[in-house]
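ugh ok so i messed up the first submission bc i forgot one of the chains. this is the corrected input, ALL of the components this time, i swear. 341 residues overall. if the numbers dont match what u have on ur side tell me asap before i send this to the collaborators (the ones from the other lab, u know who)
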Amino acid sequence: MNTVLVTGGTGYIGSHTAVELINEGYRVLIADNLSNSEPEVIDGIEKITGVRPGFEQLDICDGPLLKEYMDKNSDIAAIIHFAASKAVGESVEKPLKYYRNNLVSLLNLLEEMQQRSLSNLVFSSSCTVYGQPDKLPVTESAPVKKAGSPYGNTKKIAEDIIEDSIMSNPSLKSISLRYFNPIGAHPSALIGELPRGVPDNLVPFITQTAAGLRSELKVFGDDYNTPDGSCIRDYLHVTDLARAHVVAIKRLLGNRNKKNYEVFNLGTGKGISVLEMIKTFERVNSLKINYTITGRRAGDTEQVWADTTLANNELGWKAESSLEETLVSAWKWEQYYRKNN
Ligand code: NAD
Ligand code: WQD
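and heres the new structure output, hopefully the right one now
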């Protein structure tokens, strides 16, 4: 049974990935400083899988503590590095916090991996590295553009750091997964997204408006050059996204990677507008969302969706869930969470 370290594993995507890894027979160790998640998430993972993952409250930016942790857990075969700060707006106000947290954590992990000849790293990257692509759907070979935020920059720089490390240390292998927009929750509703404060992202804002926590949803602009004027994104079910991490781990551990550094887009391949999202949510959950159209949000990309051919062909991975199922799962989670907290 291979052991996988999941940094940021009590977070939104990390917790869903821990479930999929356990279901596939991996031993999962989670290291998270709980800066943006709750320890109860571990109970949710255990309820779903029947297995309690190992958990340590640990700041990956703390080099000496990380070293101690790695010494104690010398059987780790691969690492999935989710731990990062991810609020785009906050990153504009506090860029140094973002550069420190997102890059020092990565540097510490890479140094530990190098010292232990540990080879396998899966990294959480983002479609934010493409900015507004010149061609859609966007492929992995599209130019990486200057990011619209310090957060986005940390992902671009992190990918460069990993690639450069591999050039100097050919025993290191890594896969960067560029996520498009993960949404929804585990179908059990025992784990899901837990935004702190007012959500920045569309789907948590929709579900909180439906739950009465927010009086209205603001649609940021209907004057874009898109069919209905609202922005377009590629929304994928978080459980599909989580499965892709298991596939990436198997590829690395099975030495099936074609290059020591590989990059894959993870999306559905379909672009959906904000207004289509609202209408679909209303229809599948038999609800009405109170929304108004307001001005554009600064820094928003007009439209982006993924070309997923590479992930389909190389990883044998495809997003399976429909948008309808995904939006049902998001609402089920919001209701479950409100009832129990
Ligand atoms: P999240 O905030 O829910 O999870 C991140 C977890 O990392 C949290 O539990 C947090 O407590 C932990 N963490 C942060 N800094 C840490 C540190 N220094 N040491 C230990 N733990 C730390 O976020 P998420 O949505 O699950 O995102 C996971 C990863 O995927 C992040 O790297 C994020 O940038 C990336 N990503 C997310 C999205 C998205 O839309 N959610 C899209 C693209 C990429
Ligand atoms: C989606 C669409 C908004 C809220 C962000 C990060 C990006 C990535 C994913 C990590 C946009 C519109 C939203 C609202 C709205 N994360 N919207 N009203 O903008 O694709 O990306 O999360 O790497 O880096 O920037 O996602 O969910 O914030 O917005 O109209 O209250 O919904 O304008 O068009 P986005 P989002």
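quick check: The first strand starts at residue 3 and ends at 7. that seems consistent at least. Residues 24 and 311 are 20 Å apart (CA to CA).
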